[in-house]
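Q: What would this complex look like in 3D?
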Amino acid sequence: MAAVLESLLREEVSVAAAVRWIARSAQSSEVTAPTRPQAWPESAFRDDPGEAAALSSLRPLRKEFVPFLLNFLREQSSRVLPQGPPTPAKAPGSSAALPGRPGGPPRGGRGARSQLFPPTEPSSTAAAEAPSARRGGRRRGPGPGRERGGRGSGGLEEGVSGESSPWAGGRRPRGSGSPGSPSLARSDPPNLSNLEEFPPVGSVPPGPAGRTKPSRRINPTPVSEERSLSKPKTCFTSPPINCVPSSQSSVPDTSPWGHGLPPGCRSLQEEREMLRKERSKQLQQSPTPACPTSESGSPLPSRTGNLTAEPADPARVSSRQRLELIALIYSSCIAENLVPNLFLELFFVLQLLTARRMVATKESDLEPIPGALDSLESPLFQSVHDCVFFAVQVLEHQFQVLSYLDKGTLKLLAENERLLCFSPALQGRLRAAYEGSVAKVSLAMPPSAQAVSFQPETDNRANFSSDRAFHTFKKQRDVFFEVLREWEDRHEEPGWDFEKGLGSRIRAMMGQLSAACSHSHFVRLFQKQLLQMCQSPSGTGGTVLGEAPDVLSMLGADKLGRLRRLQERLVAPQSSGGPCPPPTFPGCQGFFRDFILSASSFQFNQHLMDSLSLKIRELNSLALPQPEPSDEDGESDVDWQGERRQFAMVLLSLRLLAKFLGFVAFLPYRGPEPPPTRELQDSILALRSQVPPALDVRALLQQGLRARRAVLTVPWLVEFLSLADHIVPLLDYYRSIFTLLLHLHRSLVLSKESEGEMCFLNKLLLLAVLGWLFQIPTVPEDLFFLEEGQLDTFEVDTVTSEQGLDGMPVVDQHLLYTCCPYIGELRKLLASWVSGSSGRSGGFVRKITPTTTTGLGAQPPRTTQGLQAQLAQAFFHNQPPSLRRTVEFVAERIGSNCVKHIKFCQKKSPGAVRALLPEETPAAVLSSAENIAVGLATEKACAWLSANITALIRREVKAAVSRTLRAQGPEPAARGERRGCSRACEHHAPLPSHLISEIKDVLALAVGPRDPEEGVSPEHLEQLLGQLGQTLRCRQFLCPPAEQHLAKCSVELASLLVADQIPVLGPPVQHRLERGQARRLLHMLLSLWKDDFQVPVPLQLLLSPRNLGLLADTRPREWDLLLFLLRELVEKGLMGRTEIEACLGSLHDAQWPKDFSEELATLFNPLLAEPHMPEPQLRACELVQTNRGTVLAQS
Amino acid sequence: MILTKAQYDEIAQCLVSVPPTRQSLRKLKQRFPSQSQATLLSIFSQEYQKHIKRTHAKHHTSEAIESYYQRYLNGVGRNGAAPVLLDLANEVDYAPSLMARIILERFLQEHEETPPSKSVINSMLRDPSQIPDGVLANQVYQCIVNDCCYGPLVDCIKHAIGHEHEVLLRDLLLEKSLSFLDEDQLRAKGYDKTPDFILQVPVAVEGHIIHWIESKASFGDECSHHAYLHDQFWSYWNRKICIKNSQPPWRSRLHMTMVASLVPLHSSPLLSSYPWPNPTCGKLSSTLHSAHPVPCTFPQITALGHLSGQR
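A: Here is my prediction, written as structure tokens for the whole assembly.
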């Protein structure tokens, strides 16, 4: 490999030829001429037969070149980037490809991979050792925060909380990545037939963890107390170095270090010690004494973290030509997508750009070794100047990608003084790009989530098999949200544990879901809530459920923007975990993940998978409206806004659903590490290969590619695959998916811009997510660098006639950054350079000036504007989504029409200018003036529009909406309901409750016990009955139970009147109602009973033993009122004789004083004998009474 | 009217072991003349219910029941016209209506062959004339009309208040031209748990968005807030019926009077009237009664309507 690079450096081979050469290895042999970066001179494209000859001899090594190049650059930069976030490299074959290191650990490749570097290659042991040692030094450099850049150890890293889930255990590094690896004998020719040494690609080496896979070239810094500033994060590359099982014990020790690795564990300390020795040995060989920093052996970065940056000077760049060449070939590899992860390389380049100083520089390094310039023997980066020069070179080639980054990153780049110093031209382009950029990316928090609404069509009783199931589900819904609220309140408390806090409650709830039908109901609720809470950016909700209204909105509009930004900085995760974070479940997603884990219900998981799959299919095939190409740019712009928003919604939902589908589908297979033995793995593979996939993602991917909808399908597929277990990539089914994805990745050459090509940002999104996927711990390292020919078989027969989503500008920067928050690491890196901090904490120092606010105790005055916005939100919240869409559509249409009108600027302005200027104005001046006027008018119009149009439209729509609502008025059911009152009734009658209460008081007073001074006045009684009449006539507030009680109480009151039991206030002697008063009151009651009550009045109570008994106790007994009452009742048709007779009959059963019974008989016989009442009338009154009852029941 | 926490505490303090009689209520009214009878009665009732919940069990041991029954028999044996049962209830610090139920149940057990069903007992309590024993019927009736916290009459009054305030609330909503769905309409749609009214267009009250209103027609102390929140309001939230900013009870405050000042959406003139005028003034607010036991340092509001009413 080094030979290729060296022949490049010696200009024996042109860069273009080399790239062609590499690309051929990567793509099919029919590949078209590589598209060249814009900066390439035409001459670079000579295809020289000599070159071809020079390269053809190296043919078998082609695909090794890119990993070699990447690792070479990482090696070379190790002295410059000893601290700060490292750039993880996931290029296999690192050590194998080192110049002069003809041995390498066998990788999990097939036979083709065995072509190792011939021992005859020109190599220098000394030169080889230097970078190795440096690499080692760097790798073990205890730079704090180093591990940030790495990937989490166990697949899924636990977001911020740091808690570890049971299945996300630490991942043991497969390869030691330690100096042990090169210890394979160089003299040992690899035995290709030995499956242990050369297992099939991607398979996990068998044996006692012996067949180490190529290590990821990332600093295995152990978790240590030194990371005082950064949060403890697990990191798959870093951990248990101290317990790497050594496999090399059987292999003769020929490591360049000359140390045999003893079998068993080798601690990091030991390794470090070894490196130290090696380093000092090397230093002793150099003619000049070692500089002080090297005394300590390994270059320890200052712990203060305040390394001042060394100024970079273009004039002090050594070996420009060599750097230019390597930058060119590196850039070409990036441009051709030969590197696994575009953004990782950009991150690396920006690290070089912002390198602070070279550590452990030797004097000799600064002097180019004569004759070594064109070789790789001298270090590539001899100073910070070199690094910066190289970085700027690469950035120049990558300008196009840079120009699509967000505005903030562009600003930081454009303001970077080193960049300005090394390439004013690039700086100018960046500045222009910055000024033209509208890509303000804000990862603002999503609005607080809400509960899933009750949907009658799916949630009402008709959807359940039984009342019981319906009510069970009702309870479950409440329990689910209770659990959710508790999680929301407590999950950030230290020491709170999901399983301990909620596990048993969740399982109890799941236990009630017996019927399959209930499961599907619950799953629908679960899925809806998931989408609702987590769909928005990164799902890290600040306020989620019922949290206090945010402080920000209390402060008024002027401060709002600033404070929103502040909130964003405070609440947004500071780092997404380096440029290649492992898959995580941030924010609310954690709840749903933990819920699934705690529920540990097979049925639930199955229903959930079914439901998720269905929803994914549905959304994936959603016909996203394709707007017709519009004549007016402005209009189409407005249209695309809506399209983009809809696309983003669908895409984010799909990604979330797919992530959870992947999580649940692969949950049973997930383990912290791949199976330990080959046999085990084979048997697992045999088992797994017959399990049908939870969702036929391959078919969906193929469809997506065919229909040119990759931009929709691939991002969610990546989410799905990111949660796969270690075995998945080895299964034929998924392997073919990876092959498809790899091909797609290679085909997404950003510089290609032609008809029918995918839009730039669409490509960028796919490159970002695919690049991320290729760095997932469970994806084999060598998968990306598949052997030649593997991809030849790939074909996608796209339906080119149909313009798919891929060709539409559906992705904007906001979506890109939302899907790939790790791209934001670039900005953080640049920001940390500006802030002058070391990259110790991964950069991005928060500089926040505290703002004071008034205490929250007082009722905060809210702004009208904010409140109206909230009201509008709340309004839409309760309405079907179509309403919102309609309103937004109207707003957009009107907006676009307005823009159209403004565009008349162009026609009118020149005319106006011409009319205003004097006639003799020269034509050139006129045309300039016209142009300027058009420009200015457009600018002003646009400014005015941007300032006013939204508000205008909103006001219009608001007015329209409120007009409609007013016009609609209240519901007809609610309006005009008179509840039986007369038309003129003004509902001023006393409330029934008040009357019941009052009458109850009178009854209580009459029944006693009472104080001597207690009593009621006759006037009060009269008033009470009057009020009762009013209430019964105004039926506004009456309900049947109240009326029934009133009726009963009125009868009780009559009984007390008849028995003269009501204590009357007045002169002490009297204490009794006058007869006349009593009769008057009874008359009132009779009239109420007859005319006003609409419920049956229990008049028979008048003759109940208890009420008659009241009379029995009085002496002398006064019967006249009772007789009067009964007569009136009969006369008014309120009671019939037979009824009275029946009541009296039942009285005989009661035990009365003897004289009372006699009196009763003598008194009632004449009454009953009276001939006035013919029977028919009685029946009639009975009928009336029942009718009233029925009417009432109906009302 | 909004009570301060201190005022509420003072009232509650006066109600410790006070029998639930007309006389007690009269004394309370004399002590707190500025409070309406409805408020006082509601607080009284709630405090007394808390007390009964705490002590309920000890009155239902078989020993206690037996001893009460014997005391009753002895009492009416001496004088059937004396308020035996009522005095007994007051003496042992138990609600008269509930004491009447205990004795009635015990009486029926003794006199009937089969143990009495609940519905029979309820029916006899509603209409004591059905009680086979005339003396007991009078005793029970006396307990019921003298009990201001328990019993069928009190239940009816509470129910009536609840109904009346729903009607009042509906009238207010109509008067303010607010579009809403009521409970019956929602039930017809199949909702399993519904508040009294859902506003089809949300409104702002004191800077808070209101989506639904539930009229509870009782004084809102912290305890009842908590209970309602748990039993009902969260369920509305769980069905997305509620507002985002709904507060847990310990941070919440009751604002029934606010119904009077509802603000329609998109009407700037009304919105400009912030801060709200004193809720105690104005015609509408005086018709509604509300109480607020929690200090005003908690600015949040719940979307629940809470009424304890009086005209």
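A: To summarize the key features: Chain A touches chain B through 89 residues (CB under 8 Å). The longest helix of chain A spans residues 923-968.
Q: Very helpful, thank you.
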